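The following record pairs a protein chain with its ligand, coenzyme A.
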Amino acid sequence: MAVYTKILGTGHYVPERVVTNADLEKLMDTTDEWIQQRTGIQERRWIDKDTGASDLAKPAALKALEMAGLQAKDIDAIIFATLSPDYNFPGSGCLMTEHLGIPGTPALDIRNQCSGFVYGMQIADAWIRAGVYERVLFIGAEVHSTGLDVSTRGRDVSVIFGDGAGAVIFGKSESAEDGAILSTLVGADGAYAKDLMVEMPASRQIPRITKEGMDEGRHFPKMNGREVFKVAARKLPEAVVTALGKCGKTVADVDLFIPHQANLRISEAVQKALGLPDDRIYNNIMRYGNTTAASIPIALDECVRNGKLKRGQTLAVGAFGAGFTWGAAVIRF
Ligand code: COA
């Protein structure tokens, strides 16, 4: 009997502190107009006290469990996608087993930046269909705000990123009609590594971090925004069309498309390339900024809870980010 993977529940959590573009104007030389025009972002959430990615993930996971009608002990494995883990090591997935009171549960941290959700979903799907695990908790969670250069020097990057967490519980489905991941596709190209990276601390360097390097701001994210924009606007639609083709579908079959919330202008370019009408794409970057691995699961949870995505509908997701990495997937919800 064929086994498929379906989404059993979703949840998200963002910190309470709202940081508007006007708030950023007080920290750096920028304007609300510049930020909205280039990125579509109006506000984002930043933590206001010591809070790790796993702390944001806990309430998101609990909400997803509640929607699925499950308890934490029902989870067989955790996949935690983040580029901003609580500590350098151990991974935030390990911390989740303590947060949820499920010691012994296997926990895998993955480092695929903005494409973390699609990479994680592909792993969860393979585990479930191979019979390794029955129920997998995926988490995408980021605390960007403590790692941003909020001076004018870092303004191109720091206005974009926000903190938040999204969770999705994947489980077994016995018929494709009852919900299924229909196809997944992921890719990476390290030739672009330096176009979006945090260089320090680096184990390849002796010592890993220097005062000099910090004075130069090399421990903050650096981005070649134009290159990111150009490659994302090409790769994302390509990945979505290929993922649709892998399961015999076209853009016309997509009820809802959720792009990674990198930048509203990128999402608009992708929408145009795919020829999707406004009512079949969902964006929330205006309210949260770019939350990297959390962005698709946060948007997905909003769509499930506000009725934009209903059981039986076809969902497509597409992601692109540092690495460069990218991915797309098609899901019958
Ligand atoms: N506020 C005001 N001015 C800013 C600014 C800010 N926050 N950030 C940069 N600028 C300035 C630059 O210093 C530059 O000034 P100059 O002309 O005097 O040198 C000017 O604005 C234009 O900068 P440029 O980098 O050419 O702007 P851009 O039109 O390429 O827009 C991005 C910059 C970052 C908005 C754009 O490249 C982008 O959206 N890239 C994709 C980024 C992304 O999605 N990243 C997430 C990946 S997952």
